[in-house]
Design goal:
The protein starts with a strand and ends with a helix. By secondary structure, it is α/β, with parallel strands linked by helices. It has 7 helices and 11 strands. α3 (67-77) packs across α5 (105-113). The longest helix has 12 residues, at 257-268. β10 and β11 (227-230) form a beta hairpin. The strands form 2 sheets. It has a 9-stranded mixed sheet. Strands 5-8 form a two-stranded antiparallel sheet.
Length: 269
């Protein structure tokens, strides 16, 4: 079995890095190192030494509208210690077939960078974006997600439903046109959708769809299935007692199953 080393990036306000690293260790990764972004820029840490890269959630750059855009600019314009564009490291990481995951602010960053959804295999071209919730408020609640069994996403294999919390103010997917939105669905790049927990059906109804995303989009993957971006926080459901209804005796799948799928894939690769 291959050794799996995960890199969890932190800095600039991100605050879910410890939960994320804990979830990865629970999932069986050999290492889950929390590293400040500046250490990647300085060359103290190299992406090539890892197989799993995670952009955790939190309050990146104050969680202001445009915060993820500002973070994307660091990747686009900063150079590493060898005076090469930092983006080259990320592109090589992706080309090598390694795994990348972005949660909440991390998802926003992947979208702003153009790592997701990468329609037509085009990376670093912004094709969709995320904006304010239709509720016009910060949403902090538990939601139920349904996976797309036809999606290439390696993170969601074998999962049907999962309950996890959301905590965001800007989680609504927007596309430049209806054609783009339809392609996301047709090409199975929508890998996670909000559902009504009473019926299990995909829904636009608030608060089950907390941000009003069209087609109830909660998470996207790329055509390779090696990149996952989602607004909910699977790392925050790492023990049964995290769930507000844990005492009702119903069997519940921990959010860490998403990380388990990733680690299993890398170990068997």
């Amino acid at each position: 079995m291959a050794t799996v080393k995960a890199l969890v990036l932190t800095g600039y306000g991100t605050n879910s890095h410890k939960e994320t690293a804990h979830a990865i260790r629970m999932a069986g990764a050999d290492e889950a190192n929390i590293v400040h972004f500046s250490d990647v820029v300085s060359g103290a840490v190299k992406l090539r030494d890892y197989q799993f890269l995670l952009f955790p959630g939190g309050f990146l750059d104050g969680d202001d509208l445009g915060a993820a855009h500002a973070a994307a600019q660091r990747w686009l314009y900063l150079k590493d210690d060898e005076e090469k564009p930092l983006l080259d490291q990320l592109n090589t990481f992706l080309e090598d077939g390694k795994l990348v995951m972005g949660i909440c602010n991390g998802f926003q960053l992947l979208v702003k960078l153009g790592v997701l959804p990468a329609l037509d295999g085009k990376r670093f071209e912004r094709q969709v974006s995320l904006t304010h919730n239709l509720s016009a408020r910060y949403e902090d609640r538990w939601v139920q997600l349904k996976t797309n069994k036809n999606s290439p996403c390696v993170f969601t294999k074998g999962i049907e439903f999962i309950q996890v919390p959301v905590r965001h103010g800007e989680g609504r997917i927007v596309t430049p046109d209806d054609v783009t939105l339809e392609r996301l669905e047709k090409e199975n790049l929508i890998c996670l959708q909000y559902t009504d927990p009473r019926t299990g059906e995909i829904t636009q109804e608030y608060p089950y769809n907390p941000n009003g995303s069209p087609k109830a989009i909660a998470g996207l993957t790329d055509p390779t299935g090696h990149v996952l971006g989602l607004m909910p926080h699977p790392e925050a459901f790492n023990h049964i007692t995290n769930h507000p209804q844990w005492t009702n005796g119903q069997d519940k799948t921990l959010g860490t199953v998403i990380f388990e799928n990733a680690v299993k894939y890398l170990k068997e690769k």
